[in-house]
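Renewal narrative, Specific Aim 1. Our central claim is that a sequence can be written position by position from structural information alone. The example that follows is taken directly from our test logs and has not been curated for this report. It begins with the structure tokens describing the chain, in the order in which they were read.
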């Protein structure tokens, strides 16, 4: 038998071993067991690590240096963790070296097995055959699979304190994967820490997209990928060339985890220690809210979100979360472009300082998309803050001082951009404020971000088109660039489809729950479609049929109606003909 066959058998054996170990973890954490069953399960964990980790080392020996350096580094971490866990099981070592007592916890065993499983799963190449399934269909299917898995996990007995129905679990899973934040049961009191952890994982995977994780880790461990995969991920990362795709993916993951780590650290420091029983609870609160904030999910372990009395006036926490909303809502292509611009800016000023007598050329680094998104985001934030403060000054903000009113208004302006947290009583808002919030929710975040809505670039292009038509121009121009007709067509298609779907959602909910106020229903439907998560307090009172309508609305808003239509109507045939052009009477 050749060494390649042996390697293949070892890979398959190692994968299935890690897979069943993960199933065992779900079974272990999700169900209550007799003592002897717990012992058997934990014995299986150790057997998995004792057999699985050495199998990786054996493949190194057989493969003769075929593993890239980055994979070697990753495996070194696995081997080191496994070594610490093995030593931590020896009583004599723990007694003499207290350091190992820290690793004598089941959480480290779970982490080691999950890392081991990710490593083995990523060895399989993700193949896409465009003749069988197109990228739009694959994108939709990936979200559906994640929602179904999340639903089943949330229905595990130990995920909730008193059980949950399938429909409520499906609603919660869809809301988490679609980073919406609408809830039918209170996250903090209804779900256990295990259940909240499941929601947290669904938010992270749903916010960045399961295909982002799968494609990058597959490339990381294999060192190569197919041309079809690169084409698909090129659209996700907005890369200019195929060669930049996985470099951009790496930067996306790096930026995400760096922002979330910094955000979690700042949130931890902003909290009052007396509000938590243990340091672990405080850490979990910080991690949960920084991921929920950056992914624009809006989930909170607090019953009344940030309107909770203990957190209502914690303005540093509000500002930290607002910054996370904005960074997550800008979109990864924009953040990467700003990073690139920052490097050029520093380099330009350094050269200008070093050679003041020579002119320094500054290339077009901050692209048109970034300029439009940044300007539109700034206008919406400032405008939203002014309107919120003006309408609520003597209403929901009457108990705040001026700086408090300003901070609360800024938070109230940024959270409708698909974030979903609230720091004021939503039921007491002025009608005018509600209308402003609905408008901000409809626009949402920016393309390529963790947020939803029709996107900032869409409303910007539509506005520029209005102004261009009013001026009698036959094209749309901005920043010495002309907007492509395809972008104009997509912008108005997205706006029209959103209005039609939200209208249909309002119509269906009004039919199934005729006693509900139309304004509340409209607010809920827009919040669901734009994956915001703000509510006027009617979500839990929906009938089963209305919950299904909101589930479909959240899903359609997350994957976009244009993507759904493209998945089933896309025709890749080239049009090698052109009909005569005629004007249609409009206005």
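The sequence written for that structure reads:
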């Amino acid at each position: 038998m050749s060494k390649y066959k042996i390697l293949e058998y070892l890979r398959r054996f190692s994968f299935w071993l890690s897979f069943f170990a993960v199933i065992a973890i779900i079974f272990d954490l999700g169900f209550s067991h007799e003592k002897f069953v717990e012992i058997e399960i934990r014995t299986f964990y150790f057997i998995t690590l004792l057999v699985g980790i050495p199998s990786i080392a054996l493949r190194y020996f057989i493969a003769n240096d075929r593993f890239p350096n980055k994979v070697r580094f990753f495996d070194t971490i696995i081997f080191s963790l496994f070594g610490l866990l093995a030593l931590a099981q020896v009583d004599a070592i723990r007694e003499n070296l207290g350091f190992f007592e820290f690793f004598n916890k089941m959480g480290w065993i779970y982490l080691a097995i999950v890392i081991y499983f990710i490593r083995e799963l990523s060895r399989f190449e993700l193949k896409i055959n465009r003749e069988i399934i197109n990228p739009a269909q694959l994108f939709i299917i990936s979200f559906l699979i994640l929602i179904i898995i999340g639903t089943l996990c949330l229905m595990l007995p130990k995920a909730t304190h008193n059980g949950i129905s399938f429909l409520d679990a499906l609603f919660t899973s869809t809301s988490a994967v679609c980073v919406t934040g609408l809830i039918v049961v209170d996250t903090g009191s209804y779900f256990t820490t295990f259940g909240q952890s499941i929601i947290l994982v669904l938010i992270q995977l749903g916010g960045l997209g399961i295909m982002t994780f799968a494609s990058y880790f597959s490339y990381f461990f294999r060192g190569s990928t197919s041309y079809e995969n690169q084409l698909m991920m090129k659209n996700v990362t907005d890369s200019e060339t195929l060669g930049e795709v996985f470099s951009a993916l790496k930067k996306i993951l790096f930026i995400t985890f760096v922002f979330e780590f910094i955000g979690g650290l700042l949130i931890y420091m902003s909290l009052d220690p007396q509000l938590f029983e243990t340091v672990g609870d405080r850490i979990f609160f910080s991690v949960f809210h920084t991921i929920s904030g950056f992914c624009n999910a809006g989930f909170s372990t607090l019953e009344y979100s940030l309107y909770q009395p203990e957190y209502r006036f914690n303005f540093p926490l509000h500002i930290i979360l607002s910054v996370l909303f904005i960074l997550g809502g800008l979109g990864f292509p924009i953040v990467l472009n700003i990073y690139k611009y920052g490097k050029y800016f520093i380099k330009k000023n350094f050269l200008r300082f070093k050679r003041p007598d020579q002119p320094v050329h500054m290339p077009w680094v901050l692209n048109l998309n970034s300029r439009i998104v940044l300007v539109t985001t700034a206008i919406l934030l400032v405008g939203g803050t002014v309107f919120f403060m003006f309408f609520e000054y003597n209403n929901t903000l009457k108990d705040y001082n001026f700086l408090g009113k300003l901070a609360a208004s800024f938070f109230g302006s940024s959270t409708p951009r698909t974030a979903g947290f609230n720091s004021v009583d939503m039921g007491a808002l002025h009608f005018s404020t509600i209308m402003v919030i609905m408008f901000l929710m409809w626009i949402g975040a920016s393309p390529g971000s963790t947020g939803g809505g029709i996107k900032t670039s869409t409303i910007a292009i539509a506005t520029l088109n209005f102004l261009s038509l009013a001026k009698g121009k036959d094209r749309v121009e901005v920043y010495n660039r002309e907007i492509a007709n395809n972008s104009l067509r997509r912008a108005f298609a997205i706006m029209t489809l959103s209005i039609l779907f939200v209208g249909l959602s309002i119509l269906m909910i009004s039919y199934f729950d005729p006693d509900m106020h139309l304004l509340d229903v409209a607010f809920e439907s827009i919040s669901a479609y734009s994956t915001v998560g703000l509510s006027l307090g009617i979500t839990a009172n929906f009938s089963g049929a209305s919950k299904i309508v909101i589930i479909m609305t959240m899903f359609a808003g997350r994957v976009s109606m244009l993507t759904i239509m493209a998945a089933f109507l896309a025709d890749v045939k080239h049009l090698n003909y052109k009909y005569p052009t005629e004007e249609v009477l409009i206005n």
